[in-house]
Specification:
With 158 residues, this protein is of the alpha+beta class. It has one domain (3-156): Yope Regulator, Chain: A. It is built from four helices and six strands, in the order H-E-E-E-E-H-E-E-H-H. It has helices at 3-13, 62-75, 103-125, 142-156, and strands at residues 19-20, 26-30, 33-39, 46-56, 79-84, 88-96. The chain has a six-stranded antiparallel sheet. A hairpin with a 6-residue loop joins strand 3 and strand 4. Helix 2 crosses helix 3. The longest helix has 23 residues, at 103-125. The N and C termini lie far apart (34 Å).
Length: 158
């Protein structure tokens, strides 16, 4: 069985219903948001999951979007927001799939990180502050920032 088949089977076992989306890959829905799983026929170990079309890019907002992209990418590990097809922001997580052991945990992690990326990007593009409660002296560490972002997501039930 190929990794693509294993990933699709695992997504189905997790309760998602992947639907083929032509050459783009497979769409599945999680909490009213669409995700896109794409495989790479030339590299079976390559795993990419994205949230497509997070935000429309226009000539008027392009500079603000690029600024929000950079600020979000600085805060979030593993996943990056990018401009795709010149006019749409996507959040993309790429991973080398060395083993399919614990695949459901990996997929849950990817989905969660993509949600964080979308949340932070929308906060940044709207000029809203990320309010971190319980700030401590080590609040600049990547682990501390990620933990605080996860806490915000839990509180907002994204």
């Amino acid at each position: 069985m190929s990794n693509k088949e294993i990933v699709l089977q695992e997504l189905s076992a997790m309760g998602y219903e992947p639907i083929e989306a032509g050459t783009l890959g497979y769409l599945f829905s999680h909490e009213d948001r669409y995700f896109l799983y794409s495989d790479d026929e030339d590299d079976e170990s390559f795993l990419r999951i994205a949230i497509p079309q997070l935000y429309d890019v226009t000539e008027e907002n392009r500079i603000d979007v690029i600024k929000a992209l950079h600020e979000t990418a600085f805060l979030i590990k593993y996943s990056k927001p990018v401009i795709m097809y010149t006019d749409s922001v996507w959040a993309i997580y790429e991973h080398k799939l060395v083993t399919t052991d614990n695949l459901s945990e990996l997929l849950e992690h990817i989905i969660r990180v993509l949600e964080v990326t979308a949340f932070v990007f929308h906060k940044k593009i709207n000029g809203e502050e990320l309010n971190f409660e319980d700030s401590s002296e080590d609040n600049d560490s990547d682990d501390s920032i990620e933990a605080k972002i996860n806490k915000i997501l839990e509180d907002t039930k994204l």
